[in-house]
């Protein structure tokens, strides 16, 4: 029965019975990553959870850390790995089970040799192992202020009017909050060998300033005296300010997202009215963990385009992008359509990457000889968008469907998304049998 429905589905695709657009499930094989731990060497021990109170004072007030950086960074990096749709983080339960089999404790996990790492990777079915050290995690406040007095006077007034002068003091007051996070990572392969140990950092400043522009202008005319006193209004901000104050940071659960906050009870929402991603700390943490994922990609592979990297820009008609200006966009040809995966003949040495998007073109209207009526070629017709799921060999890659408006066929052309220009006539899909 299953075979019957498979034949029916293939026949439907061939005859165009399927209603479009069509979407296909992901086929990219996941690479399993074990994030063993993060070690906190940042001296971030403030009970307020924001690092704004010096450590020795924090120790007097409380010995308990409000923010657990070690557990939080492990959890947040695992979330970033999931977002790639290429990496699969190994769960905490899987790690604990493997540690139990090997009789490892949390302390001994930090002292593994190459052979033990290889054994652990085998138990976890891990393709790579990652560990990290938090070298710096703090927020500092820098104050700034400036003032200047602008004077204007002695101007000539029209006949019958008195001269006027005014003094305008301008006072600028503000502060800069700076968050700095520095990590030291180590990446190991499935054999337990060290493949990279990048040092990664991210810094972001948030400037808060107040400007007082007090103007007192006196002008004397025949009609009397006019006095004006005012202050410039604050500019409206398009983006909300990140949370930086200790009182608000004290009411934030570390490593929480909007979804975590939404799932809380009403009582917890009143107790913790903000989530970690709303803080300046959260913004910098997001930046530094994206850099960790990029370093992991460059160290252990595979080559893919992350969700946080810009897609190739679409050129306006008649323009050329850097890719098209040289040798033109990368192209390939569909060899076989299974209905869940598409096999494409394409040269992987051109630098294609997993998640890279390609337009797909099929034969459109025929172009005929004006005298004989003979079909000379076909106008390429764009019918959708595909993306690279797996690079199998130098010449064969597997693609998945993002969206199509017609069933795909053998001989259809895929072209790197760089412009809206159709494929050239020489790349016209093969004549169908």
Describe this structure in words.
This protein has 433 residues and is of the alpha+beta class. It has two domains: 31-296, 3-Layer(aba) Sandwich (Rossmann fold); 310-427, Thrombin, subunit H. It contains ten helices and 16 strands. It has helices at residues 2-15, 55-61, 69-84, 92-101, 114-124, 246-249, 258-262, 266-271, 280-300, 322-326, and strands at residues 31-40, 87-89, 128-152, 166-189, 194-196, 199-213, 215-221, 224-230, 252-253, 274-275, 331-338, 341-345, 357-368, 375-391, 396-404, 413-416. It is globular, with a radius of gyration of 31 Å. The protein starts with a helix and ends in a 17-residue tail after the last strand. The relative contact order is 0.13. Mean pLDDT is 77; it is low at 1-25, 54-63, 162-168, 210-236, 313-326 and 420-426.
